[in-house]
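To close the chapter, one final illustration. This time we ask the reader to focus less on the individual chains and more on the assembly as a whole: which components sit near each other, and how the overall shape emerges from the parts.
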Amino acid sequence: MSIPLSWYLILAAALFCIGLFGVLSRRNAIAILLGVELMLNAVNINLVAFWRYLDPAQMAGQAFAVIVFAVAAAEVAVGLALIISVYRRRKTVVADEIDLMKW
Amino acid sequence: MTAEKIIFLLTGALILLSALMVVSTRKLLHAALWLVVTLFGVAVLYAMLQASFLAVVQVVVYIGAIAILFIFAVMLTRREMRDQGQQTRSNWWLPALLGLLILAGLVFLILGVPGADRVPAALPEGFDAVRVLGTALVSPNAYVLPFEVASVLLLAALVGAVYLAGAGKKP
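The assembled structure is written out below.
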């Protein structure tokens, strides 16, 4: 264990920014969800790295990482169901064209 | 340069390259497959951080369930914008600039934090992270409440996904 903590944090920051770029730049709603997954993974790397480097006896980092897993699974299940439902009714997955509630 | 650092750098390069492919490749199915590579790299990082349970859960839940769900969704909707048409917005340079600015700011902050270059102490002899995590998740003075809230959230997501996917059919 000779890796400084900052290496993990910088890697997670880079992964988060790539995910942010994906969320903001893609037009396809499924691709936007892929970007969200990248961002959640970056957060998880941070949580686990802080658990290992600060106080391994306190399980806060790993416990919250487990909860992030559960939230990610719920988000993907509902998000993809929404996208497929919209696709069936309107034949589009482009986020800009799903503007039913925009006025 | 120890072997551990070399493994970290290789894994980090793999994660970042595949993440860039996820956000930039034109074919969405390929993006979903590159996401599997990214998730696997993150599982390697968990193993390096000695979070063995999370490394297994990452492979089982993320790769086994979430990535496969993505591939199903891509296959169910791909007729629409398969190969033709723009995949990114016309002003994609604006998010790229924003991402680079945020990355620069975060790196500046991380390098300024005291103790950012610390290395971890070795785990105590006989420390069983999986056992401690399991106890913490169900003990009333630790994380049993977030744990139960997460299970209710999963149940709600299950019901919601079934309702949404079945919507359109008359019951």
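Residues 76 and 93 of chain A are 15 Å apart (CA to CA). The two ends of chain A are 55 Å apart (CA to CA). With these observations in hand, you are ready for the problems at the end of the chapter.
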